[in-house]
Specification:
Strands 2, 4, 5, 6, 9, 10 and 11 form a seven-stranded mixed beta sheet that branches. A four-stranded antiparallel beta sheet has the order 1-3-8-7, with no helix packed on it. It has no helices and eleven strands. The relative contact order is 0.32. The protein has strands at about 5, 10-15, 20-25, 30-40, 45-50, 60, 70-75, 80-85, 90-100, 115, 120-125. A hairpin with a 6-residue loop joins β5 (about 45-50) and β6.
């Protein structure tokens, strides 16, 4: 099973930027659709962004459109989440997730569809 390690979280003021990285342990990374999720206290885990196998298709939840960008480097086995114009409501633990798939174009929105998860990285945005 692919193992995922996130990094890049931290404390930032509103309006600032952070870049999250998620490094995968296996060459099978290129056969995985990837997603970034977040969870804050008392709330369900929600998808933030998803990306297909090649990186040519992406998905964003409405609240982050125009501010966040998901990308991947299959040679480096890493997926990124660039977060700009951060808001206090973006405060959460952010998780990356991997879904093995044979479907080139698919992006997965449901957390239950994913096979592997990272440990999470805290993002705190102060007002």
């Amino acid at each position: 099973q692919v193992q995922l390690v996130e990094s890049g979280g931290g404390l930032v003021q509103a309006g600032g930027s952070l870049r999250l990285s998620c490094a995968a342990s296996e060459r099978t990374f290129s056969g995985c659709a990837m997603g970034w999720f977040r969870q804050s206290p008392g709330k369900e885990r929600e998808i933030v962004a998803g990306i297909n196998l090649s990186g040519g298709r992406t998905y964003y939840v409405d609240s982050v459109k125009g501010r966040f960008t998901i990308s991947r480097d299959n040679a480096e086995k890493t997926v990124y989440l660039q977060m700009n114009s951060l808001l206090p409501e973006d405060t959460a633990v952010y998780y990356c997730a991997a879904k093995r798939t044979i479907y080139y174009s698919d992006i997965y929105h449901d957390a239950n569809e994913y096979d592997a998860w990272g440990q999470g990285t805290q993002v705190t945005v102060s007002s």
